[in-house]
Amino acid sequence: MTRTARGASVLITGAAMGMGRLYAERAVADGAKSVVLWDRDAAGLAATAAQLGESSRGRTRIHSYVVDVTDLGAIAKTAQKVRKEVGNPDVLINNAGIVRGNSFFWQTDNGDDTRATMQVNALAPMYITREFLPGMIARAYRPSRIVNIASAAGMVSNPRMSVYAASKAALIGWSDSLRLELEQDDHTNVRVTTVCPSYISTGMFDGARGPVMTPILTPEYVVDRVWRAMLAGTPMLLLPWSVTLSRVLRGVLTQRAFDAVVGRWFGVHRTMERFTGR
């Protein structure tokens, strides 16, 4: 699976709109055998499934499932239905995510935002992957891919993003550890790609401003880069280049010096001041 996903079965979470929908469109355009859409938005999911079915002209089978990924039982039941009705996916894109731009203590909501953010962004990818990974491993003759959409926020601390940053840091740590476990156990047919982009203009981060040298990314650009990285089995994708720079700086500077460079000079700590969200 180095050039195309032709003939593959692709499952995408958070597929009703935004980036998830774009990944689904890319899978159809790439000749996927089947595309499986997961989302809790029934109306949006139906609209996306209809549009994809029309554009594929029957060449790709479209399957949609209404599922709330904060519900472990719902994940297990829906995964069972997918395996029975479609088969185990060859490509899993853990795309679903939420953000709450709140200060952790000063804008508290009795933990509801904290719980939901950790469940959707960090725990759901783990549970969903656990459902389909055994099937991927069992088919050692067939290339499989797992893509986990994390965030640069998981690498760089930022005010008004504490829980979101924590959820993405957890996702990064788990995703790359999973990659190493699969390599160590010689399950080389299954490759994991961890994606860490900065702000993307999907509406999810409306009001946020890009730091110095870090433009707001377009969804189309990110989807193209992620898709190519997924096919190649690239371990980690950082977007844009300034995210790589911040990672290097964090490794060589003291914490206070890093705060000054990234927060004051690059303006990262001011990016969420006008955040409104979708």
Short description:
The protein is of the alpha/beta class and 278 residues long. The chain has helices at 18-29, 42-56, 72-85, 112-138, 162-184, 219-232, 241-252, 255-265, and strands at 9-13, 34-39, 61-66, 91-94, 144-149, 190-197, 236-239. The chain is globular and about 55 Å long.
Shape from CA axes? Answer: globular
Which range best describes the helical content: under 10%, 10-25%, 25-40%, 40-55%, 55-70% or over 70%? Answer: 40-55%
Let me know the CATH homologous superfamily.
NAD(P)-binding Rossmann-like Domain
How are the strands ordered across the major sheet?
Answer: 3-2-1-4-5-6-7
The CATH topology, please?
Answer: Rossmann fold
CATH class: Alpha Beta
What is the count of DSSP helices, taking H or I runs of 4+ residues?
8
- Secondary-structure element pattern, one letter each: EHEHEHEHEHEHEHH
Total individual domains: 1
Number of strands: 7
**Rg, please?**
19 Å
Report the end-to-end length measured between terminal Cα atoms: 35 Å
Average pLDDT level: 89
